[in-house]
Amino acid sequence: MATVLAFLATQPLSHSKLIVWTNGADRVKRSEHIKTLLSRWGNNIEVRQVDMPALTRGTELEGILGGSGGTGLFDERAWVDGDAVRLLVLWQFGGVWMDMDQILTRDLHPLAESEFVMQWDCFGESSPFHDYHPDQPFFILNGALMHFRRHSSYLCEAFHIMASSPLPRPNSFTWGSHLYSRLHRRLLAARITPFTVLPWCFADPRNCDHEVAFPDPFEADPAAWGGRAWDGKGEIGKSGKEMLEERLGHVWTVHLHNQWGKAFPPGGWVEGMLDRYRRKVGLLTGGAGGSGGFEPDGGEPVQDASGRKRVEEEEEGEVVLEEEEGVI
User: Fold this and answer.
1) Where is this region: Disordered (predicted)?
2) What is the distance between the alpha carbons of residues 66 and 52, in angstroms, rounded to a whole number?
3) Rounded to two decimals, what is the model's pTM?
4) 317: which of 34, 57, 233, 297 is 20 to 30 A away, CA to CA?
5) Which three-class secondary structure string do you get for 3-23?
6) What is the pLDDT of residues 220-238, one digit of tens each?
7) What phi and psi values does residue 117 have, to the nearest 5 degrees?
8) Angle subtended at Cα 73 by Cα 147 and Cα 56, rounded to the nearest 5 degrees
9) How far apart, in whole angstroms, are the C-alpha atoms of residue 253 and residue 199?
10) 44 touches 13 (CB < 8 A)
């Protein structure tokens, strides 16, 4: 439950709520992990059913996605429908959407000052993730972390592009990275100030320049990092481990890229971060440095309710920091 644990440990819970968006809400709610979370954190965590007819109502996608006469563009990887759901949720509620395969490192609310999409990378074939998409080396923009206000004009234009273009192929990025890039170029061509692009290092630090890239979360800690020995032996000043822990406060999230089948190495830097989160959440629940009901591993979803802003998520893995209408 690393995503939920990080949300509880890093977000201001007085006005933050994690909403899990899913196409199987009843099943998710029956999960023992989720039931425990909802009983302890019901004011901050909610599971909500994706209702395509309701989400598309009043948009150019009404009748195209789901419902009566809708084509129901759902694919095995939840790419096409997941890309549509995140935009529709932001249209209806506004907020910061974050995919569930991320571990937050700090409060997301300052990012809500701007409407933005995160940058994917600009390395091309030198990207450490090129092997995942060798046929398409450049993915300029990524919706894994994004913010748009309710009824944003940017989203209105995005829906127009989606509705007036050929339907996407299953398991494609047509309504994801490609759509964001088309929208961004269209705005620039029309001399309209586009949405902001969040540099990838702030949301995907593993994908930074090799000299400052975060270590692989699923491999043993490196012998050195940032030009320093990891354990600090023979060094003057901070160790590589201490430098990395300091840098965690300079980024917003650690992106795991859907590597659900892998485990974090025991005693590694990710487990150290999660241990600090467990202690903090344990204190929030009244425990004396306990885990707050979190087991050493796992991971789940998000959105907000009665406060000013929220955080959301979709079943196959998304999360959003949302705002109530009229509150920025």
Assistant:
1) 287-328
2) 6
3) 0.81
4) 57
5) HHHHHHHHCCHHHCCEEEEEC
6) 999 999 899 999 988 889 9
7) -125, 145
8) 50
9) 12
10) yes
